[in-house]
């Protein structure tokens, strides 16, 4: 009987010990995870502050990829792939265990909600950028993107309406505002690309929320997206 009691005590002690060790292991993991998250948070904040300081010190009237702010990382583009690697200087820094900071000019990338499919380009607005010139698209797919963007009525905003109330100005300002090679024609400013407002769309306009949404456009699927 005594031997059985001893075994029971040992079994209970073993269960308690294992439970304690398991709980301690979970607590160690929780503490480690918390410390890592705090470290990542402070590193991210430090990176943002360093980026702000770098841009504040950029006094040039122009931007190019040879300036200091653009030297942190190298972007490698290829068909169906995208890679990001540290620059040569940053790789040396990486060997020392230093953290890396990089700044990317997102504004220089083509905006699916702004680019168009026209042939006239006067450097006036982003919608003069012709999507059909991109490899893998072409005129038909570019027009399909606009059709998806403009909704069932096929026009920016509400068809036939001066959604942004600027037609009276654009019809008499002596500028080819809609880049159609005609100046101050009747109706200039109505059903024009500038009436497509992604942040506050008029009528049945349907701006892209993500790049991946382009797969929903007729004639464009996974293959075109990856290209």
Automatic annotation (TrEMBL):
One record GO biological process: protein secretion
Biased composition (Acidic residues): 173-194
GO cellular component: membrane
Region feature (Disordered): 151-207
Transmembrane regions: none
Biased composition (Basic and acidic residues): 159-168
Family annotation (InterPro entries): GspK
Protein name, as recorded: Uncharacterized protein
Organism listed in the record: marine sediment metagenome
């Amino acid at each position: 009987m005594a031997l059985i009691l001893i075994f029971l005590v040992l079994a209970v002690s073993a269960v308690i010990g294992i439970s304690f060790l398991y709980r301690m292991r979970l607590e160690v993991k929780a503490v480690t995870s918390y410390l890592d998250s705090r470290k990542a948070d402070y590193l991210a904040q430090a990176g943002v502050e360093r980026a702000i300081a770098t841009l504040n010190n950029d006094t040039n009237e122009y931007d190019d990829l040879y300036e200091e702010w653009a030297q942190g990382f190298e972007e490698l583009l290829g068909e169906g792939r995208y890679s990001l690697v540290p620059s040569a200087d940053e790789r040396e820094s990486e060997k020392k265990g230093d953290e890396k900071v990089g700044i990317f000019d997102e504004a220089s990338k083509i905006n699916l909600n702004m680019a168009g499919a026209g042939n006239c380009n006067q450097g006036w607005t982003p919608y003069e950028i012709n999507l059909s010139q991109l490899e893998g698209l072409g005129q038909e797919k570019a027009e399909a993107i606009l059709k998806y963007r403009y909704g069932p009525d096929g026009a920016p905003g509400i068809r036939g309406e001066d959604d942004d109330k600027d037609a009276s100005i654009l019809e008499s300002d002596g500028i080819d505002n809609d880049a159609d090679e005609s100046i101050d024609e009747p109706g200039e400013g109505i059903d024009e690309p500038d009436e497509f407002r992604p942040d506050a769309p008029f009528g049945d306009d349907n701006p892209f929320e993500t790049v991946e949404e382009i797969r929903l456009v007729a004639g464009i699927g996974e293959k075109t997206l990856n290209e």
